Amino acid sequence: MPSQTKQLMNIYTLLYNAFGSRNWWPADTAEEVIFGAILTQSTTWKNVEQAISALKEQKKLSFRAVAALDERRLAEIIRPARFLNQKARALKAFADYFGNHYRFRIKNMKKRELWALREVLIPLKVSTCYAPKFPPVPVQSFHLIQSNVSTDRRSEATV
User: Fold this and answer.
1) What angle (nearest 5°) sits at the alpha carbon of residue 82, between those of residues 45 and 92?
2) Which of 40, 73, 84, 131 sits a CA distance of 20 to 30 A from 16?
3) Is 20:95 a contact under the CB 8 Å cutoff?
4) What's the pLDDT tens digit per position in 66-121?
5) Model-level pTM greater than 0.85?
6) How far is CA 53 from CA 5, 28, 81, 107, in A?
7) Cα(first)–Cα(last) distance of the chain, in Å?
8) Which domains are seen in the chain, by residue range?
9) How far does Cα 149 stand from its chain's mean position?
10) 74 with 66: CB under 8 angstroms?
11) CA 36 to chain centre
């Protein structure tokens, strides 16, 4: 691990041990964190929750399922999140990227250094819908995954 990464992880560990989980991102899984990060662009969290609930009801809240879905069908499911065509395109693009590079496994993605991931993600400037050359995921979601931040208010599951 580069020294900067070690330093940041040491700081994170100290803060986590001192204050515990902040439980600020309501999600059951690491994938759901990424879905939420993509869907929350330009809309309210209430709308995101409705879209995530619809994905759960349809059993489509996984990037493997999204990769297999038709983009129009995905847009219908995530309608509450607004900008449904752009977000469906973004989810599909990330699903393809995630499948091709990490075989749909968060643990495979965690093997990459955060700095290497940032090389791809920084040009996004946290936008999820307008960067066709890059996987459409905000930097924050990768930071959450890389740093093992707790994402579940109910069970303290970590990403």
Assistant:
1) 100
2) 40
3) no
4) 999 999 999 999 999 999 998 998 898 888 888 988 899 988 887 877 777 766 65
5) no
6) 35, 12, 11, 25
7) 19
8) 3-146 (1.10.340.30)
9) 12
10) yes
11) 6
